[in-house]
């Protein structure tokens, strides 16, 4: 069962795949919702609480991604290191991954991270030497918050985190998304 993560829960939502501002260049979700497995949601709330103690909020770009959407991204992205093969299920279609960044809690302004979300570039990797020191510190802060809350990271994407046990859950299609308001 997938559970919603909302702004009422203390997050900023910027679900990019419901807009044209993403790798596919077109909306691939009908609704801007963030859904996660209960375990992933619980761990995300832990990271939220830690970020709040620092005057920060988590801005979510993506969470559960139906297999149909994973296929759309697979076809849209040339560099396959930046998108999982839908035939293996990936981790977003399991409801066990999030794409996110840090924002100032008062203003909502994103902290600089050196690249934008979904930048298909070498500079998107954790620890890339071409990223300014302040942006590296912001990435390290996000990494620390997420790791302390029980998440694992993907080295090529500063924004991507997944449950270490993500592959224990089955991949899901769009039929897993509840209808109606979230």
Automatic annotation (TrEMBL):
Q: A biological process (GO) annotation for this entry?
A: proteolysis
Which top EC class applies here?
hydrolase
* Cofactor section: Zn(2+)
Active site: which residues?
157
Entry's cofactor comment = Binds 1 zinc ion per subunit.
* MF terms in GO: D-Ala-D-Ala dipeptidase activity; metallopeptidase activity; zinc ion binding
The job of this chain, per UniProt, is described as:
Catalyzes hydrolysis of the D-alanyl-D-alanine dipeptide.
Family under the similarity heading: Belongs to the peptidase M15D family.
Q: What's this protein's name? A: D-alanyl-D-alanine dipeptidase
**What organism does the UniProt record list as the source?**
Teichococcus rhizosphaerae
């Amino acid at each position: 069962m997938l559970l919603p993560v909302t702004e009422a829960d203390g997050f900023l939502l910027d679900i990019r795949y419901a807009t044209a501002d993403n790798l596919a260049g077109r909306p691939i979700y009908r609704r801007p919702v963030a859904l996660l497995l209960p375990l992933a949601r619980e761990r995300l709330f832990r990271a939220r609480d830690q970020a709040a103690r620092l005057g920060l909020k988590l801005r979510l770009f993506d969470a559960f991604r139906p297999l149909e959407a994973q296929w759309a991204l697979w076809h849209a992205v040339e560099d396959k290191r930046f998108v999982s093969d839908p035939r293996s299920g990936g981790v977003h279609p399991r409801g066990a991954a999030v794409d996110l960044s840090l924002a100032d809690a008062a203003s909502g302004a994103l902290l600089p991270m050196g690249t934008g979300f979904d930048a298909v570039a070498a500079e998107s990797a954790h620890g890339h030497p071409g990223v300014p020191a302040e942006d590296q510190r912001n990435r390290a802060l996000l990494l620390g918050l997420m790791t302390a809350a029980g998440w694992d990271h993907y080295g090529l994407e500063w924004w991507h985190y997944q449950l270490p046990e993500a592959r224990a859950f089955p991949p899901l299609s769009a039929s897993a998304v509840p209808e109606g308001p979230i």
